[in-house]
Design a protein that fits this description.
By secondary structure, this protein is α+β, with helices and mostly antiparallel strands. The chain has two domains: 43 residues; 144 residues, no CATH class. The chain has four helices and eleven strands, in the order αααββββαβββββββ. The strands form two sheets. Strands 1-2-5-4-3-6 form a six-stranded antiparallel beta barrel. A hairpin with a 3-residue loop joins strand 9 and strand 10. The relative contact order is 0.15.
């Protein structure tokens, strides 16, 4: 962009002369500077597709709105609890088996297997069958646990994302927030239907 602005200015100078062009040159310099600044800001952040790169998990099974994850794709796991835990895993294979994914068992599958949701078995030996949490596909940085909570700047904008889960009357609501849970609008949220009554804990 700077090169293009410079070329335009040189052509203009040749056409009208320096003195007559001075007011226009000042305006052009300001415009080029703004364009350059906008370009610089655009490169600061990272394009992170929250819907396609975050899913929820129950045991070593990831539910996510992405049908195109290849075997071996790295996944950072945030296991909910107090404290939260961070683990690493990889995509093993696409699955529709209730033996592999508890979310697809009888009574749950109808709600959880909504249009657009895909389920993947994970290669993550340390994930227990009762563990629940989040899977972050190919994260730009790995989450770290600070004061019991996992944090990571997913879109590299200088503000960390944090993770929350809470119970509704029949399931679990997972959400990702900026800096602090339950303040403002979540960056990402999904619901896991359990098919039995639970005591609500969501704020």
């Amino acid at each position: 962009m700077k090169r293009r602005c410079g070329l335009t200015v040189r052509i203009f100078l040749r056409a009208v002369g320096l003195r007559a062009a001075m007011p226009v040159l000042i305006l052009a310099a300001v415009s080029c500077g703004r364009t350059s600044e906008l370009g610089r800001r655009a490169t600061v952040g990272v394009a992170f597709a929250f819907d396609e790169q975050i899913g929820w998990l129950h045991g070593p099974c990831l539910a996510i709105s992405n049908p195109n994850l290849a075997r071996g794709t790295p996944v950072a796991l945030v296991i909910t609890g107090d404290p939260q835990q961070v683990q690493r895993a990889r995509i093993k294979e696409h699955t529709d088996s209730p033996k592999t994914c508890q979310a697809l068992s009888q009574g749950r599958a109808t709600v959880n297997a909504k249009l657009g949701m895909s389920f993947y078995a994970l290669e993550a030996a340390s994930v227990g069958s009762t563990d629940m949490g989040f899977g972050i596909v190919a994260p730009p940085a790995n989450p770290t646990v600070v004061n019991g909570l996992a944090r990571v700047d997913l879109d590299q904008d200088g503000h960390s994302e944090v993770f929350s889960s809470c119970a509704t009357s029949e399931g679990i609501k997972f959400a990702v927030w900026t800096e602090k849970a339950y303040q403002g609008e979540p960056r990402w949220s999904k619901y896991y239907y359990l098919d039995y009554d639970t005591k609500p804990t969501c704020p």
